[in-house]
Fold:
Amino acid sequence: MQDGEIIEDRILDDIVRSYASKRLVTLRSFSDDWVHHLTSDSGELWLSGYKTSLNNSAAGAIAQDKVATYELLTTHDIAAVPHYLYRHSLSEQSARALSNQRIVTKPLTGTSGRGIKLHHNLVEARLYMDQHPDSWAVSPYVEIHSETRVIVLDGKIILSFDKSGAVRHDDGLVLFNLSHGGTPQVRSLEDNESEIAVRAQSALGLSLCAVDIVSTPQGKFVLEVNDGFMLEHFMRVSEEYRQLGTEAYETIFDSRLFT
Structure:
């Protein structure tokens, strides 16, 4: 079972069962409905938690690694929030890039905003990470005005929404995760946001992903790319959003079961 927030009575499970019945595809479920297998005459699809078999394992692993994602995006000239690797030490180049500013530390492959912490400087951040041995992604603090999630499937955007109502963390860090109390607001994307999201998907070799784009005083940047994502909080906002989430999932299923 993958790391991440566990929600009982998932809406996704209801969507999968309804889809299988409506589209007359075969459904087998395992591990208390955490794993689903859908098959039709022309294809099959696995779902494990909030991940699907649309992405290969290597591309998925790269997307989970915040530092690898940042480095790969920058090689494709895609603006992204810097993330540097810390395993007992930082490279000299990374230390120089992070000097004389506030620092954000995150578990390298963490999800749902867990374990994120703001520090006054790099010395403080290093002390904290050394006291909590792990693999860390280290970023300069960025003033984020808004965060937009863009779900991309095979080069096409199937859903986009702002994460509004940001919640201030105990250390002053502002988080936009819906699981932390943020609220979604569906909106159309600007042209540059659409281009950024599609290019990020392509650069990482993913078929399906959620690209998080942040607006800052310096412009728009990719914050993270998620090979697995949940829409549970999104769909619980209203019947309209539940329908939009359902349509997004059905589009994903159709892409592999009816091609």
User: Anything to note?
Assistant: The chain has a mean pLDDT of 93. Residues 153 and 208 are 5 Å apart (CA to CA). The radius of gyration is 19 Å.
